[in-house]
Design goal:
By secondary structure, the chain is mostly beta strands. The protein is 14% helix and 43% strand. A hairpin with a 4-residue loop joins β17 and β18 (258-268). The model is unreliable at 1-16 (pLDDT under 50).
């Protein structure tokens, strides 16, 4: 009996060892991602971008307490795939564990725990998360930005250094009527860090003219401090910010009517009630990138980050250098690749050397080889990452040679 069991086990093990790899295998590929380091204003290692995508795709965990905040990244598919929305991620660390705080426009943000192998992020700029809002002078770079806004009051401009939990809530109290209104709400997360703010007057999309507090960042809510049918001038007087007071603003309308407002900016743990908030834009599983294939002459170029000029892409692939298959055409192509035979490649690289198949945020990339024989051409695909080659069937060969004009 024992010899029979041993023989059966040996057969199972041998069978497992000789199983052929699947021709179609999607993964996160560094060739497909632009990875920007927004803390150091530079493009970063695409392999780090792949790690960010992998970690941010895991199940979120409960938010940690008392963490330090590291570098801020943005990862997006290269420009040939404009449907991608990109992912922002911030490295955070406690005494025991490390996390990425991930955010994109199609799913709710949250913390994702890193294991020891994934914890490859630099720790040279870790800063302890702030416990309270701090008012600071506006840096010179932001002063130039503020000046581009019409009717901005430069003497009111400040930079806020922000905590990473709760909400920033700005309120305006009419000193004459004592009525208080919420003017701005921003959710505080590790992504925020700092936020410039300044006063603007005579903002008019439709009547009336408005005085607003402009808080530069992703606000959940904004409302006017003051509204009037005629234009006005504003004056600002800074006050001590120990109790959250930002300052006093005096609004003088053209008729001479004057109104004084006390402005406060505080951290609160709950969203204020009674506000007409726009709906969350997260669509969760409703948004799926289409699956389609791209034939291209050379590897995709990456964005180069230049702090003064913004994002600059050098030598981008032109429309003449790639051919995109529709989702339906891609389904047919994938089916034929799935039916291909695992075999060592032969021949020369095709004129359009690369075939990239996008499936959601993952992809597979092949190099195409053509082997000229006496009466036919054989087509081979080499998986760029797995270094495995496949020979297409006659139907797959004809599709590439005739429909996509691969030569």
């Amino acid at each position: 009996m024992r010899p029979m069991i041993a023989l059966s086990l040996a057969i199972v093990l041998l069978t497992g060892c000789t199983s052929e790899p699947e021709p179609v295998h999607y993964d996160y590929l560094p060739e497909l991602y632009d990875t920007l380091n927004l803390t150091d204003y530079k493009d970063d290692d695409p392999k780090l971008g792949v790690l960010i995508k992998q970690v941010c795709a895991t199940k979120p965990v409960e938010a940690p307490n008392d963490y330090s905040v590291g570098k801020h990244y943005f990862v997006n598919l290269v420009s040939q795939f404009p449907e991608s929305t990109g992912t922002q991620a911030v490295y955070t660390k406690t005494k025991q564990n490390s996390f990425l705080y991930c955010h994109n426009s199609v799913s709710k943000p949250g913390f994702h725990k890193l294991n020891s192998k994934q914890d490859q992020f630099p720790m040279d700029k870790l800063v302890v998360a702030k416990k309270e809002i701090r008012f600071e002078p506006l840096p010179a770079d932001f002063k130039q930005i503020v000046r581009t806004f019409d009717h901005s009051l430069m003497e009111s401009a400040r930079q806020l250094t922000l905590p990473t939990t709760g909400y920033l809530v700005a309120r305006a109290t009419n000193e004459q009527t004592k009525q208080t209104v919420v003017t701005n709400v921003m959710e505080l997360t590790p992504l925020v860090g700092t936020a410039p703010l300044f006063l603007q007057s005579n903002i008019q999309i439709q009547e009336p003219y408005e005085v607003q507090l402009n808080l530069m960042g992703q606000q959940r809510y904004q409302a006017a401090i003051h509204s009037s049918k005629e234009q006005s001038t504003i004056a600002f007087k800074e006050q001590s910010s120990t109790d959250g007071t930002y300052g006093l603003v005096t609004v003088t309308e053209k008729s001479g009517k004057t109104t004084h407002y006390k402005l406060t900016i505080k951290q609160e743990q709950q969203m204020p009630t009674g506000l007409e908030l726009p709906p969350d834009e997260f669509s969760d599983d409703e948004f799926v990138l289409p699956r389609y294939a791209v034939f291209h002459d050379r590897p995709f170029d990456k964005l180069k980050y230049n702090y003064k000029k913004g994002q600059v892409q050098d030598n981008a692939i032109s429309e003449q250098e790639f051919l995109k298959a529709s989702p339906d055409e891609t389904k047919q192509l994938v089916r034929l690749i799935q039916d291909s035979e695992v075999i060592e490649k032969k021949g020369r690289p095709a004129n359009r050397t690369y075939l990239t198949i996008l499936n959601g945020e993952k992809a597979q990339q092949f190099k195409i080889y053509l082997d000229q024989r006496i009466n036919k051409i054989d087509v081979y695909l080499e998986d760029v990452h797995r270094k495995i080659s496949f020979k297409l069937s006659a139907e797959g060969r004809d599709l590439l040679l005739d429909t996509y004009q691969i030569k």
